[in-house]
Structures are given as structure tokens and as C-alpha cells.
Design a protein that fits this description.
iron; 8-stranded parallel sheet; TIM Barrel; alpha/beta; 5-stranded mixed sheet; IspG_TIM; Sulfite Reductase Hemoprotein, domain 1; 4-hydroxy-3-methylbut-2-en-1-yl diphosphate synthase (flavodoxin); RibuloseP-bd_barrel; 15 strands
């Protein structure tokens, strides 16, 4: 059972309220470079990003944001703002679909009220984002350390400021680089509010280590019904974040988009270059959006049976491979042509 949350909208994307868990990323370009930022947003949308966040550190960036918005109207665009309420106001005016800011650090109540007024008029939700590494010193001192309770207290303080202004189009994130701390914080807050959650493990690391850490942390929460939108934060080109997000959701049966690759771990019976073939298949199918199960197996004896639920697949023999569909053989193909034959069969589907 997924946690019941209120719904908010970022452009055409619903977050919470029973909507599918959405996948998002953040640009790594300098927002002031309009061409580079637009190109990266289009790349992210092309691989499935439904929400894209851009950093807005200064007035030059927010001016560029207006041009960026005009060139990528199809994506839910979120402005990441810190400390300066004027940047938030300008971002709303530029046409963003969401704001990521903490009302406690953009000025006094009058300045927060200005932002809330503009956001309400344009139907722009606000994400309150708490990071373990930047907790207010006052809260850390109160709890004696950076704890799940401290993170939740920080989030509730920021949310209370918005609620006092009768603004509830809110989603919340509670991120740390420590997986148990992140999981504990989300669990604790889930029992206190019904706002939708943006889930992720911040500063997770590079492509390999970060993928593991993010899959564990995000996976635990989603498996317990917690999470309405996710970002896999990686020190890597952001397109990998989107791919990883969908892989996590597919693994848990929450979304079906693109290819689910089934491949065996190899053993002494393998008589083809299975690692190379599986890697090439994965790379060549990355742009596929249709939900398909594709199997690449190393044993012609057990392969079709073990991958019976695959839509299509190959199972290797000595210098050849068996092409099969739904566990039934189609034809035998030389090893050198296995990948092309598999791709041709997928095209037929």
C-alpha cells in the first residue's frame, strides 16, 4: 500500500494523490548558458525525465530562465532558489512550474508572503528541502547531533511558515548521504503529515557507488509505500539519473517504461561472449520507451526456460545462439549476428 498523500501539480505532472511515482533530475550546466541548458533538458526529457530542476543562483540566471522556459515548454521545470526571495519571484514570473526553496532562509515573513502570493496566483508548488549537511545550527544543538528527529523538526518549521500563510501546495524532501538516516527521517515524517515526498539520497556518489546507495535507500522507502517523486543523485551526467530512476521503479513494479534486461551471471557452460553481447544490447536499447522484457542468456539448454516471461531473447551455444520469443525458439543465429537479430525481432514487436 502506498502512503496516502494530497496531490499537487507541476505543470502537467501530478505528484502525490495516488499518481505514478515521477522521475526527475537536475541540470549540471550553468543556467546562464541558455543553449547548453536547453540542450541538456531536451536530452533528459528524451530519456524520460518528467520534472527537471535548474539552479538559479543570481539575476543573470533567472533572466536566462525565461528563455529556457520558452524553448522547453513540454517539461515540468523547477527553479532551485536559496537565500534571495527576489530570485524566487522572478522565477515564478519566468513561468516555472515549481520552486525548491526553504522559506526559513529567504528573509522575513513579509518576503516569504510575497513569494507565497506569487506562487499561489500562478499555481506553483513549493518543495521544502531539508539536507542533513546544511541543518540550522540551532536545531542541531537542540537535538545534540544531526538526527532523523532534527531533520523532521527542520522540515516542520519550514512547512509551518507556509501553513501560517495558508499555503499547502507543498512537497517535502529529507535527504542525507547516509541511507539509514534518510530512511529514518522519511519514516518519522510520514507519520506526521500527508504532504507528498520527493525521495532521494543526496551526495550519493559516482555512477557505480551512487547507484547502489540510491537503489538501496530509495528502494527501501518505495517498498514501504513512501515516495511520490524521486531523483537518483549521481556524480555523473544527469541522463544516468533518469535511467536509474526508472530501473528502481521497474524493479519494484511501480512503473513500466523501457527495456527490462534479463541476463545470466555467466558460468562455465557459457560458450559465447555474453558480457559483450549483453552490454551492447543494453546500450542499443537505451532509447527504447516501450515496456519490454529482453533476455540475454548464456546457456542454450536452460536460457529459454529461465527467461520464459521475456518478450524476446537470445540464448548462447557454441558459436551460435538461439533466438526465442516468450520462451519458444524462433531460429538459430551465428554469434556474430546475435545482437542484430535480436534488435530486428524487437523492431517487429
Amino acid at each position: 500500500m502506498r502512503r496516502k498523500t494530497r496531490a499537487i501539480r507541476l505543470g502537467s505532472v501530478q505528484v502525490g494523490g495516488g499518481a505514478p511515482v515521477s522521475v526527475q533530475s537536475m541540470t549540471s550546466t550553468d543556467t546562464r548558458d541558455v543553449a547548453a541548458t536547453v540542450a541538456q533538458i531536451r536530452e533528459l526529457v528524451g530519456v524520460g525525465a518528467e520534472i527537471v530542476r535548474v539552479a538559479v543562483p543570481d539575476q543573470q540566471a533567472v533572466q536566462a530562465l525565461r528563455q529556457i522556459r520558452a524553448q522547453v515548454p513540454e517539461v515540468a521545470l523547477v527553479a532551485d532558489v536559496h537565500f534571495d526571495h527576489r530570485l524566487a519571484l522572478a522565477a515564478v514570473e519566468a513561468g516555472v512550474d515549481g520552486l525548491r526553496l526553504n522559506p526559513g532562509n529567504i528573509g522575513g515573513r513579509d518576503k516569504v508572503a510575497e513569494v507565497v502570493r506569487a506562487a499561489r496566483e500562478r499555481g506553483v508548488p513549493i518543495r521544502v528541502g531539508v539536507n542533513a549537511g546544511s541543518l540550522d545550527r540551532r536545531i542541531v544543538e537542540r537535538f545534540g547531533a544531526v538526527t532523523a528527529e532534527a531533520m523532521v523538526a527542520s522540515a516542520l518549521e519550514h512547512v509551518a511558515i507556509l501553513e501560517d500563510l495558508d499555503f499547502t501546495a507543498v512537497k517535502i524532501s529529507l535527504k542525507a548521504s547516509d541511507v539509514p538516516l534518510t530512511v529514518a527521517a522519511y519514516r518519522l515524517l510520514a507519520a506526521k503529515v500527508d504532504y507528498p515526498f520527493h525521495v532521494g539520497i543526496t551526495e550519493a556518489g559516482t555512477l557505480r557507488g551512487g547507484l547502489v546507495k540510491s537503489a538501496v535507500g530509495i528502494g527501501i522507502l518505495l517498498a514501504q509505500g513512501i515516495g511520490d517523486t524521486i531523483r537518483v543523485s549521481l556524480t555523473a551526467p544527469p541522463r544516468h539519473e533518469v535511467w536509474a530512476g526508472y530501473e528502481i521503479l521497474k524493479t519494484l513494479g511501480l512503473r513500466r517504461r523501457g527495456v527490462e534486461l534479463i541476463s545470466c551471471p555467466t558460468c562455465g557452460r557459457t560458450e559465447i561472449d555474453l558480457v559483450r553481447i549483453a552490454t551492447e544490447v543494453e546500450e542499443r536499447l537505451q532509447g527504447t520507451t516501450r515496456a519490454l522484457k529482453v533476455a540475454v542468456m548464456g546457456c542454450v539448454v536452460n536460457g529459454p526456460g529461465e527467461a520464459r516471461e521475456a518478450d524476446v531473447g537470445i540464448a548462447g551455444g557454441k558459436g551460435v545462439g538461439l533466438l526465442f520469443r516468450k520462451g519458444e525458439p524462433v531460429r538459430t543465429v551465428p554469434e556474430s549476428k546475435l545482437v542484430d537479430a535480436l534488435l530486428e525481432e524487437i523492431e517487429k514487436l
